[in-house]
Amino acid sequence: MTIKELYRVNPLRFILATISYVLIPLSAIGQSYLLMYEVTALSNRNLKLWLWLTAGELLILLVTNLTQSSSNYLATKQIQNYNHQVRANTIKHYYFDGQDHTVAAMQNRLTTDLKNTNENYLLNFFRSVQMACYILFAVIVLLLIHWSLLLVTLVLVGISIYLPQLIAKPIQAAFSKISDSNKKYLDVAEKWLNGLNTLQRYMAGGHLFKVMDEATQEVQESKVQQTRINQRLAVMNGLVSSLLMLALFAFTAVLIANKLVVFGTITTVGNLQFYMATGLQYLGNYRGQIKSTKPLNAKIAEDSNAIEQQKENELGTAVAFSGKNLSVAFPNGEKIAFPDFSVKAGEKILLTGDSGTGKSTLFKLILGELKPATGTITYFDKDNNKINPNLAKIGYIAQTPRLFPVTIADNVTMFDSKLNQKVDQVLSEVDLTDDVKKFKNGDQQKVDLDHLNVSGGQRQKIVLARAKIHDSDIILIDEGTSAIDQKATIEILKKLMQSKATIVFIAHNFSEEMHQMFNREIHLG
User: Fold this and answer.
1) What is the pTM of this model?
2) What's in the keyword line of the UniProt record (predicted)?
3) Residue 420, exposed/middle/buried by CB under 10 A (0-12, 13-18, 19+)?
């Protein structure tokens, strides 16, 4: 995420927001400048001049109130529109990159990380402009009063700019730790809360509370550490600024005593002292926080970069495939090696093996969701030529059917209106027609993911219908009928075996009748 990209979202609004943030210090310091002459007019008993100056000050005060409200609105609107673009690009990146991202990691990137960047980088840019203008306009006013006051100001600015560099790295580490700990918390929540019913059944709430408390504690400690470092930075900036501003105030008193400036300067310098102290302190803080977001911004940019996709006509349609010297390695050191295999076009293969032998993992390799540690998978078209396949055309039915909160028909067609006419046919082929008729709205019944108005077997049938209606030349089925009764499973298998598709089916406890439906078996062990 960059300021240049933020500008491109809406250049006019960005410029107006920036101008609004500039007008706030301009109005405030202009008001202080007039105050100097107001006090001087009163000391000289010039009531008419005092009234004109007071009217001008009231006008400036009105402008200040208007710009304060508009600046926050314009900046927030610009940032939220930018966030919308970043989220859209990030979702596209996750969709096209072919990697297996956890839900917790994606949620963390789209919510917490963007929120941190908004607050500590994008908004701080506008705030930094505002604080820099407090310093700049104060410098101009001090120069108008007496050139010697500028020298002290330059010393203050130099120290303020240098100071954040002393603890920039600890702040960066604190922000990165917050992102990592929050990602870990979401991951723990996803893994444990998904099994809430099981934990309740076995009254294992105590362990759940312990695990969640440990994850929460890490998030809290990370945020406390960030606050501690930010406070340290604020104290350092504030202490140095206060000491130097005290010197500025004393120096101004000397100038008044020597009649080098007007009497009202004493009140103006007091206000300028406040504005400069505020500007110097917060500018230092904002610069430190902006620098701390650099690693996080790089990660967000990486996850929102567009991925160049090969055109569909450049990819072939696979009907067969083979694997040679395949193996996968996991972060915990575990490794699974697979035997060489070859699956011909139209074959119906039963894939078997004990738990942990890598049956589902092999499917992920075939689908391109995992990268092998060794070996390759080769794909072939209908003419038995090696091709670069369009993996999106491979049908896949996972152990846990993935449905969406739309109608049954849309879950089958996956929003391809050209397939609407085939819905009734495929529902019949997977033995779902009678079940669908029981719904009030038939195949237009919306699937309720929160209260699950479809059974486990119905969910599997919907996903089977999805694979069939898209005429996939290769279909990978990972225990896709485990929730369907044996009689219905046999009927579904018979229809699947009549198709021209190449089918690889993972199953346990198949009867001999079901086993005989397949051309052959590949056993992992």
Assistant:
1) 0.62
2) ATP-binding, Membrane, Nucleotide-binding, Transmembrane, Transmembrane helix
3) middle
